[in-house]
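Hi there,

I know you've been waiting on this one. I reran it after we fixed the sequence typo, so this is the corrected version. Both the input and the resulting structure follow.
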Amino acid sequence: MPIHPFDFKLQADVFSTPKGREIFAETSRIQNWLDFEAALALSQAELGIIPAAAAGIIQDKARLDNLDLAAIAKEYTRNRNSLIPVIKALRRACGSAGEFVHYGATTQDVIDSGQIIALRQVLKIIKDNLLQIEDLLLDMARRYRNQAMIGRTHSQQAVPITFGLKSAVWLSELGRHCRRLEELRPRLLKGQLSGAVGTMSALGRQGREVARLTMDRLGLGVSTISWHTARDNIAEAGCFFAMLSATAAKIANEIFQLGKTEIMELRESPPSGQTAGSSTMPHKRNPVICERIAAMNSHIRSLSGVIMEAMIHEDERDPRALWSEWLAIPQISVYILTSLQYLQEVLSNLEVNPDAMRRNLLSHKEMILSEWLLFRLSAVMGKKRAHEALSPLIKRAQAEKQSLKDLLSASPEIKEVLSPVDLNNLDHPENYTGLAAQIVDDVIMETTARRQGNRAGENHEPM
């Protein structure tokens, strides 16, 4: 019986995706190991280390459906090594050629390289997700470039912004993650083939060339030195996933907060044909996807800490730290893939309510332009004097529920500075958005330029 939500059948893919489960399925994991063994044998045959005929047999048999799965399962009840039962099954399937299986490699070479093959698939999906989410945010930033809404600081209403600016903040943060991803890939996507303690002693003088050819066949880079106990690149991936998740959770939380009944500026909308209502309160439509993103973020952050702690290896091999990392990587990867898919879903169906934005913008009336008033008065009176003149009037207007405009007009000190046009501005907070529109344009331009540059780079990459 499945006991983890990843494996549930009736409640499938609430906290996972089909592709994420496929990447880290047991069968996929073992097939990655078999692909390594086939690539290793072919590379050694190319250099004359093992017979070419044996390498051909190993390549032909290195498929999971060629192996005795029942024998592998039985062997795992007796053998505590993570790989040996699979190696034994492959050797049996290869007959006499089996003596050349796993020739000169060590268990961790195979398992580490297999994990990198899986992470390569994860990074590809993340890249696709980020580009699709960027498309959505680019559209939102353009569409709502001038849509005024209230900005909030310390959870309180502050001064006007635009929803285009808020979208551009999300877009800019996502763009930095795109750059981090491109920087991470060449560091992370390197396989492992260095033998028992990282010296390549079993492979002899041809060890480096065996490693290069093997990794070429697997589509991975080659590490100059063993990373059996140097897990910083894996830890970097874990931290990157945690940062991505935090961004997704930040956006989901803003949508969650701005979707409260009393605010209702943004609202998560379920996909067509689906519902997210309460079981007992039909009037409710719950933001369940945003809530799931938040829940997964808690786990991703914790798992990134586990992976970071696993950097502390001892000597030339330390399964205590290694197995901790191996347990965490599938979970953190599946969660981040699910979070990004959910974020894309939320943004694709996001309900934006300009009427509510305007209603909330006007709810504090003239108070919301206190900053504009302060600096308009400061230009004539100086900031300290202006602050001293303005603060009592604002407090009085709030306490007595009076019009701030009327109090300003009645103040001998202030009415000498403010013209009727100035007082009229207090009724139009939507005009006080500073450089918001220009900032939005700049972020859109930066994002577009980066994407065009990336496409140009991809077109010139060697095949």
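Quick highlight: The longest strand covers residues 156-162.

Best,
R. S.
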